[in-house]
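In the design runs reported in the main text, the only information available to the sequence generator was the tokenized backbone. The following block is the verbatim input for one such run; it is reproduced so that readers can re-run the procedure and compare outputs position by position.
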């Protein structure tokens, strides 16, 4: 792997997994996502998700039925949930 710290450009960054708390797109509640790919930097002590991981989680939460997620889900489980695509959107319009 060839990660560079997004904060201090250190090359010593390591990939770990960690629990994160994430607000749902509708803002009603937050869930805990376990085993989320996380970067840990020994030089600036930042522990964070890469921009790519953040975008993947946000895209997935936007496209799945969030009511089907419990309060705690693992990253793998979350990413395995089926996406709703736009079918429901068009069903709603044709009603
Ligand atoms: Zn750093």
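Verbatim output:
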């Amino acid at each position: 792997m060839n990660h560079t710290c997004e904060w201090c450009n250190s090359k010593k960054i390591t990939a770990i997994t960690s629990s994160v708390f994430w607000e749902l797109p509708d803002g009603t509640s937050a869930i805990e996502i376990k085993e989320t790919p996380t970067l840990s930097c020994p030089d600036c002590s930042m522990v964070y998700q890469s921009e790519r991981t953040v975008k993947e989680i946000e895209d997935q939460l936007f496209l799945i039925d969030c009511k089907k997620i419990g309060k705690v889900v693992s990253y793998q489980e979350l990413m395995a949930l089926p996406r709703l695509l736009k079918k429901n959107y068009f069903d709603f319009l044709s009603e």
